[in-house]
Description:
By secondary structure, this protein is of the alpha+beta class. The protein is about 35% helix and about 20% strand. It has helices at about 10-20, 55-70, 90-105; strands spanning about 20-25, 30-35, 40-45, 75-85. A four-stranded mixed sheet has the order 1-2-4-3, sandwiched between helices. Strand 3 (about 40-45), helix 2 and strand 4 form a beta-alpha-beta unit.
Amino acid sequence: MKKKFRIKKSIEIQQLMEKRNAVANDYFVLYYQKNHDLENFRFAISVPKKFGKAHERNLMKRRIREIVKLNYFKKDIEFFVIAKMKSKELEFKEIKASIENLITKAKLLKERDK
């Protein structure tokens, strides 16, 4: 995934969270907002230190990035995914289903041509 798709500045992440547009389940929280100034969607991922050692946190981030890569998002969307501690026990298929469920609830995907 190219770096132009990532939100890096903490101030931007804080602004996203202050909007309070969020959906959540037992495993993940997804904050989102529309930003009409964007040419493409942007996202950020957070896995807390309590989650485990660095290799465990990095594995979860890689899995979430792969799920994001497999979906087609609207161009004017920014979102932030936070992994909860409970998500550690999930396998990739379950993580994918859980995150895609949140993305669908938030209506972040492009409508596909039929």
